[in-house]
Amino acid sequence: MLPEPPTTPRPRPGTAPVFRDTFALCTWLLDRLEDDDRPLARSLCDNGLRLLDAISLAVRHREVDERLAEADDRLVMLRVHLRLAEARALLASSQAFFALGEADRIGRQLGGWLRSLEPR
Fold first, then answer.
1. How far is residue 92's CA from residue 63's CA, in Å, rounded to a whole number?
2. 20-45 pLDDT, tens per residue?
């Protein structure tokens, strides 16, 4: 059984797709793990929130290069921790598969944004 989509409000229409997808993944993580006190659950929520912070500030044109580098680092750590969460049975395989797919989507968008900033 695949995980259900987020049930909390979505960002307003017209926002950047990378922000919408990051917001949805962060919401999904918090819905499942926010009340869990285990270190890995806290780390997943923290990395999700920090990823959302970095994307939010980059979308608002605040220190874009620095924020995108931070977002890229957070996304790397989030992927590693998602795999670890599956290995430690914090997330079911179907949940990890879903979350890693969302992280990959965000990574492709983030990579495209970073490439667009490279000098030609």
1. 37
2. 999 999 999 999 999 999 999 999 99
% the chain with pLDDT above 90: 79
pTM of the model: 0.86
Residue located via tokens 């977002």? 71
DSSP H or E run through 45 = helix 39-59
Distance of alpha carbon 33 from alpha carbon 21, whole angstroms: 18
In 3D space, the residue among 1, 2, 56 whose CA is nearest the CA of residue 26 turns out to be 56
Region class of 60: left (phi > 0), else alpha (psi between -120 and 50), else beta: alpha
Angle at 44 between CA 42 and CA 50, to 5 degrees: 100
Q: Which amino acid is at 52?
A: L
Task: Name the token pair of 36.
Answer: 């869990």
